[in-house]
Specification:
279 residues; globular
């Protein structure tokens, strides 16, 4: 090759490098623009609009941990907002992206927290062996997240909720599940309370965690403790997209628990009167 030819080749290489650099920079700026817009919608609890922006960012940069995590997280949040059969499709998609997080970023606790959460929500819509299989994924991934970061609250919330649901299985259903569906992981109300209290130590401003704690106390028929937790919910600030709904529901649940407590007291008084009359 002549000197002139080498010069032209070098010039072409430099031009190509500059061209690709400009394209990459442009794509990076576009990705950041969509992420910023998504974050703004997310902060105002407009999860559907945030999801649209994160999808666009993902199309431009599917290998970004930050983009993939925000997309997965927001899919779960939209499912929570809908709180209906429509939520299932969002949880299915969240599982898909959570698995991509695991494939590409297996060292992050957020990866396994996303897996535990998305599988847990998806299990609600499944039955039989599929529910058992998914529930095993919930505990396995929650434990992995805690092992990687014991000061991250989300996996404790997931486990606290899961343990309560396992504890609420009737003996008949537990035996049936173990016989025909496989092993049902252990879990008790005390385990649920321990995990939820740990989550609150890490993040005491979580309305969702206090609400879940109230549910566990109610399942144990500790109605006074459940009402105390729900009254705390009414005093807490709104920091998450579910908080307004949870605060509204707290008032209704307190009334329900008051009625249950009144009936219990009435039954106790009746038994006392019958016992006193017998003597």
């Amino acid at each position: 090759m002549t000197a002139r030819g080498r010069g032209i080749g070098l010039a072409l290489c430099v031009a190509m490098i500059l061209s690709y650099t400009l394209v990459w920079a442009s794509e990076g700026q576009e990705t950041d623009k969509y992420l910023l817009s998504g974050d703004q919608h997310y902060e105002s609890f407009d999860n559907k609009s945030a999801l649209d922006m994160y999808r666009k960012a993902y199309e431009l940069n599917p290998d970004s941990f930050k983009t993939l995590l925000k997309l997965t997280r927001t899919l779960i949040d939209v499912g929570e907002d809908l709180n209906s059969k429509e939520s299932e499709a969002y949880y299915e998609e969240a599982v898909k992206y959570s698995e991509l997080l695991k494939e590409n970023f297996p060292e992050s606790p957020y990866t396994y927290a996303c897996l535990a959460s998305s599988y847990g929500y998806l299990a609600i819509f499944r039955g039989g062996k599929e529910k058992i299989r998914l529930s095993n994924n919930v505990t396995e991934n929650a434990y992995k997240a805690i092992a990687l970061d014991p000061d991250y609250e989300v996996p404790y919330i997931v486990l606290g909720t899961y343990y309560r649901e396992v504890a609420n299985l009737s003996p008949f259903l537990r035996v049936f599940a173990e016989m025909f569906l496989g092993d049902v992981p252990n879990g008790s109300h005390d385990d649920s309370i321990e995990c939820l209290k740990k989550a609150l130590q890490i993040r005491p401003d979580s309305v969702y965690t206090v609400t879940e704690l109230a549910k566990t106390y109610a399942s144990m028929r500790k109605y006074d403790s459940a009402m105390a937790s729900l009254r705390n919910v009414l005093k807490m600030s709104v920091v998450d997209h579910l908080d307004p709904r949870l605060r509204q529901e707290a008032d209704e649940k307190i009334l329900v628990l008051k009625r249950k407590l009144s009936r219990r007291l009435a039954r106790g008084n009746n038994k006392f009167r019958r016992y006193s009359g017998a003597n």
